[in-house]
Amino acid sequence: MQLNDVDIKDTYAEAFGIKVSRLLITAATKKLALVAATEATGYGTSVIGCPAEAGVDGYVSPLETPDGRPGYTIMICNSSKKELDHELLERIGMGILTAPTTAVFNALEDTEEVLKAGFKLKFFGDGYEKEVEVGGRTVHSIPIMSGDFLVEAEFGIKEGVAGGNFFILADSQMNALIAAEAAVDAIHEVPGTITPFPGGIVASGSKVGCNEYNFLNASTNEKMCVSLKDEVVESEVRKDVSGIYEIVIDGIDEESVREAMKQGIKAACTIPGIKEISAGNYGGSLGAYKIDLQDLL
């Protein structure tokens, strides 16, 4: 199958379940809201080595926020409910409360489970905290040096999907990079999804386990390394490919991840020099979700 003369490989992306929380951060300006969102989602590329997978979901206009200020939604993901609770508390406390003029609201309503990170954080107020109503929501108002920090008491969590992915194979590293950036821009238009890697782009696609060192649970995907295509016997890199980037997507549900993959692939295939779109899977050993590339299109 081809899309814009780009080969869409007959394969699937293997994704896995993960617990997801979604927050809305508002601030006096769009810039300050994005600064806080960026800080709160740092060191969150992959649960292979990070304490969570996290990223900025999208911009929310002042017309749609509880306090009438610009904001950004973010997502924080972890396989453990306990660990996710810990991450919410630390990321809100150290990445958002410390940022100028911010407030934090729950952006995942009507869930069966909640985490009380905001309730726990209120004790930073040392007895001076109080409850106020903002946009029909009851929030904790915590006095801080620059004014008051507002945080909703509870944040919804649900079972989401992590690890949706596709590979962009191009005739050069630069064309692969341009296509990857176009894909990330398109994915950012799909609500309820994040691309947690730096700039949304994975430069170091990995595989489960390691061939040479038994102390590693993940290692480089040598079959997809362009510099090894003439060295690895079972290399999956075509002779006409000299640049590969991977896009990884987490979402609030499978439908959101599928739509993000679809839009990202379509955008990538508009860039000259793209030869093939593929995906990573591990024969079903990693996760329960199999997203067929050709079915998406």
UniProtKB/TrEMBL annotation:
It catalyses: N-formylmethanofuran + 5,6,7,8-tetrahydromethanopterin + H(+) = N(5)-formyl-5,6,7,8-tetrahydromethanopterin + methanofuran. Its EC number is 2.3.1.101. Transmembrane segments: none annotated. GO terms for biological process: methanogenesis, from carbon dioxide; one-carbon metabolic process. Residues 147-296 form the Formylmethanofuran: tetrahydromethanopterin formyltransferase Ftr C-terminal domain. It is found in: Cytoplasm. GO terms for cellular component: cytoplasm. One of its GO terms (molecular function) is formylmethanofuran-tetrahydromethanopterin N-formyltransferase activity. InterPro entries: ForMFR_H4MPT_ForTrfase (IPR014053), ForMFR_H4MPT_ForTrfase_C (IPR002770), ForMFR_H4MPT_ForTrfase_fd-like (IPR023447), ForMFR_H4MPT_ForTrfase_N (IPR022667). Homotetramer. HAMAP family: FTR (MF_00579). Catalyzes the reversible transfer of a formyl group from formylmethanofuran (formyl-MFR) to tetrahydromethanopterin (H(4)MPT) to produce 5-formyl tetrahydromethanopterin (5-formyl-H(4)MPT) and methanofuran (MFR). This is Formylmethanofuran--tetrahydromethanopterin formyltransferase. The lineage of its organism: Archaea, Methanobacteriati, Methanobacteriota, Methanomada group, Methanobacteria. The gene is ftr_2.
